[in-house]
Amino acid sequence: MTTIESQHAGGTALSAPFFFRGEVVEGAGAVHRSRDLGVSFTTPEIDLDRAVPLRSEVPPLLDVALDDIVDFLVEAGQRIRDPRSPFVRDCIDRMSATHTLPRAQLEAQVVGAAGYLDKRVLHAVVEQNFPDPKALDGWVPKRDFLGRKSFVRAFAPRLIHVLPGNSPGVAVKSIAQGALVKGVNLFKMSSSDPFTTVAILRTMADIDPEHPVVRSMSAVYWRGGDAAVERVLFRPQYFDKIVAWGGGDAIDNVVKYLGPGLQLVSFDPKTSISMVGRQAFDTEETLDCAAGLAAEDVMVLNQDACVASRFVFLEADEENADRFCDRLYRRIAERAAAAGGNRPLDSELKEQIRTLALLDDEFRVWGATDGTGVVIRSEAPVDFHPVGKTVNVVPVPSLDEAIRHVGVATQTVGFFPFDRMPDFRDRLAAGGVQRIVHLGEAGPSTVGNPHDAMYPLHRFVHWMVHEDGAAAIPIGE
Question: What is the DSSP letter of 154?
Fold first, then answer.
């Protein structure tokens, strides 16, 4: 048992330090409780003066070449992946007490996310987000058809990042993206993970505490909705945009502070689904394959990720649907056993599932509520949000029927068979879906692709125009 684990077992509150532009700040000025597990942790009192970047200051990264920023991020990625990293080891020790994911998955998340800090990946992200990446390094000259000249720059923004609690890997990507756009960044950590962001920034400061990337980053924690903090920080005098991840309550809380000069870039709550066609029943081998692929999508981050499937719309009659459900449950249970760290479902969800199990005419339930997996077959989608390795299979006479169940909150659709995807993608997009993938591939994503129907980095920056005032050419000449 590590020192941190011993402290937690003995009832001592964990310490979650802050980071202000290269300096780590320890303290126990405030006591908080983690969202999911109710574990106590302490933080320093927030020094709002240190958290607020002055408008009179030129952003530290403004005149640093993008290539130099990428090189620094790549070096940081190598340090994060080093198993001897004291900052990452300490982070995992602490986060294991506050987070619902098993320790092995937390380690895989943090170290795996460091793969984003790869030169090819980072350049691909920039090139996909910006038609002309030169706009990040300086003023790009333009001339319109009338002969008017101007210069355009993707100017360094001032960003507050409201980070999610379900995926510690998002901290790595958010830091990298904040650096790529040369922003001044304040990261609001979550109560489930008030550790990863500081661990990554400490790793960077260990390379060079004066590097402009390090001096562009701060990370703190406060309880979401704390008006004493948010009334001060969420102002256009200090920040341009709030980049918010999280559930509906978190997004709604941010929205009330928006106004002229302070915008929201929202990665708001999403639900993902699967669509499985009748071809899954062509052979026993095909059925096994489709069930296994569907289980892969359910089990992304133990079903804590937005991309994790929660509903499977299955082109089948009831008899075949039950065959699929039985195999799907077994595949989920196998993966749950391999992952370990299973937590029982909360009492409300348990009661809902137990009630459904009694309604044999409309529902059938496979599995148990002990966190090892549940599959519910029903004539229509259940009216609650399946979590904790719980998935709802809805038989439909045709996948065309499934389209009426998608909306703007539907992020990813895992689809089988693959050759039918082109017939559905336009209709899914019209319904609000943002992404369609092969069944079983909800987790991986093509480098640089849009996220939540947008190119995020393009939204982050402050697009500035310098009109040169050249004489115009009259139209028609």
Answer: E
Walking along the chain (477 residues) 10 residues at a time, the average pLDDT comes out as 48 87 94 89 93 89 97 96 92 91 86 92 96 96 92 97 88 96 96 94 96 97 92 93 84 89 89 97 97 96 91 97 97 89 85 84 89 94 93 97 94 97 97 96 91 94 90 53
Q: How far apart are CA 153 and CA 30, in angstroms?
A: 41
C-alpha to C-alpha distance for 42 and 26, rounded to whole angstroms: 9
Answer whether 144's CB lies under 8 Å from 468's CB: no
Q: What are residue 367's phi and psi, to 5 degrees?
A: 100, -170
CATH number for the domain formed by residue range(s) 271-438: 3.40.309.10
Question: Matching CATH topology for 3-268+454-462 and 271-438?
Answer: no
Q: What residue has token string 């290269």?
A: 22
Q: 3-state class of 262 per DSSP?
A: strand
- Domain locations in the chain? 3-268+454-462, 271-438
Give Cβ neighbours of residue 97 (< 8 Å, ≥ 6 apart): 4, 5, 8, 14, 37, 39
Q: CA gyration radius for the chain?
A: 24
Region 3-268+454-462: CATH code: 3.40.605.10
Backbone φ and ψ for 13, nearest 5 degrees, come out as -65, 140
